[in-house]
Amino acid sequence: MKILVLNCGSSSIKYQVFDLPAGNVLAKGLVQKIGEAEAKIDQSSAKGDIALKEKVADHTVGLKRAIELLTRGDQAPLADVTEIGAVGHRVVHGGERFTETALIDDEVYREIERHSELAPLHNPPNLLGIKVARELLPKVKQVAVFDTAFHQTMPKVAYMYALPQSLYQEAKVRRYGFHGTSHRFVAARAAEVLGKQPNQVNLITCHLGNGSSICAVEKGRSIDTSMGLTPLEGLVMGTRSGDFDPAIIFHLARTKNMSFNDMDNLFNKKSGLLGVSGKSNDVRELLKLREQGDADATLAIDLFCYRLRKYIGSYLAVLGRCDAIVFTAGIGENSPLIRDLTCRNLATLGVQIDPAKNSQAIGKELDVSATNVQTRVLVVPTNEEKLIAMDTFALARV
Ligand code: ADP
């Protein structure tokens, strides 16, 4: 079955077509700058690469165009639109309602809509993608895969904030966690690498991309994660601060007269690696500057690794026994130095990297642990789209 996987942002549509159960990718595409004077459309497949610049007024036009490029003309990887057997949608927030992937019907659609207040930037474009795909492909089953679902197994002690419980009961203020699809994917793969079933392993999975989060996985289930009500909490990220004293907000309001919007922008878009270095949120760039002796880039990288190491230490304490620490996503898969700086000082806790193996692990799966360690260190490339396709296939074929 050919599965179309959609990830709709506010002005973009990312898409991939998978052939299941084989699991190979037939096409990848990206429509950017929807609603602007000129949009950019890129698609690659075995039939050839396409790069276009044209006006794409809205998501309906964008998705129509993507389906056309997939199914019509010499460079189309599919013979006909009827080849699309199901559509899998990435949905950011499923709240407490969605503990797993769901087949979309009117009720599920309304529930996702209801959760928009928890993810006002993300759920509305995800929903728009679902609406348009249901209109354009009415006979095809549509499936929603939630970033939050994997973390719904967290115990109350991990997901509650130490705030009056009325805030949880009345305003749903609790920790939800994100990147669940990635943590689930690499946890399952790490179990395979360790030669065990997912429910036999305890892991710490580190998703380190532009957004970063870490997850404590006990017997295959998430029991804690670093992101909270929103993706702002936790690790140092590209442009997000991660953890800080919330009283900084009152302090900045009083002393700098900053508004909530100013601060939202400051903590989400101008902090993290970008804020500390003052130069870039791109780790490749910062590593280059660090090599040249740039003090600000060095501090940014050190802060990133130090915070991550603190979280790893606390999750080792939470789990008791940990079979492996798993590094994934753009930074986790590609930067031996970040892995090395992070795992320093963890030897007494049973974690030690082999420098030679670590330097080999760039963009590929590898066990980079030293020999005879209690907790292995694995590099496992993530593939959220593939997991969305697999979940979609599982629900659509029945
Ligand atoms: P997103 O969250 O946008 O999906 P990615 O998982 O693609 O992010 O990760 C983006 C991050 O990965 C960027 O900070 C980028 O600098 C970093 N990255 C990519 N390749 C490398 C590399 N070879 N070495 C170090 N960092 C890398």
How does this structure look, described?
The protein is of the alpha/beta class and 398 residues long. Helices cover 39% and strands 21% of the residues. The protein contains 15 helices and 14 strands. It has helices spanning 59-71, 106-114, 123-136, 156-159, 165-171, 180-193, 247-256, 260-269, 272-277, 283-291, 295-319, 329-334, 336-343, 355-360, 384-396; strands at residues 2-8, 13-19, 24-32, 39-45, 48-54, 84-91, 102-103, 141-146, 203-208, 212-218, 221-225, 324-328, 366-367, 376-379. An 8-stranded mixed sheet has the order 5-4-3-2-1-6-8-7, sandwiched between helices. It has a 6-stranded mixed sheet with strand order 11-10-9-12-14-13, sandwiched between helices. Helix 1 (59-71) packs across helix 3 (123-136) and helix 10 crosses helix 11. The longest helix is centred in the last third of the chain and has 25 residues, at 295-319. The chain is globular, with a radius of gyration of 21 Å. The mean pLDDT is 96. The structure holds adenosine-5'-diphosphate (ADP).
